Amino acid sequence: AVYARAYILGRLTAEQMTQKFQALGYKNDVIKLHVSGGKCWEIYGHDKAGKKVEVYFHPITSAIVEAKVKE
Up-side HSE of residue 15: CA atoms within 13 Å toward CB? Predict the structure, then answer.
């Protein structure tokens, strides 16, 4: 229980994750942002080329865990 509490308290905010998404070069058009079932931040938007992307970020470090480009 202590680990779970620390995990939630240390998690980055939606605003911080939106800023990270944009800083990585993704467009300023976050379509959907939420914490996935796997506890990662899951962000949907578009890359520089305008393709739809789905990017999963570690909830505390904001490192990219997985990124998918949709056609």
Answer: 0
Contacts of 12-15 spanning 24+ positions with Cβ under 8 A: 12/41, 12/57, 12/59, 12/60, 12/62, 14/41
20 vs 41: CA distance, rounded Å: 11
pLDDT for 4: 46
Q: In Å, how far are 22, 26, 34, 49 from 38, measured between CA atoms?
A: 23, 23, 11, 28
23 in helix, strand or coil? Answer: helix
pLDDT number for residue 65: 92
Predicted confidence (pLDDT) per residue in 14-67, tens digit: 888 889 999 999 988 888 888 887 788 899 999 999 999 999 998 888 899 999
* Dihedral angle sign, alpha carbons of residues 16, 17, 19, 20: positive
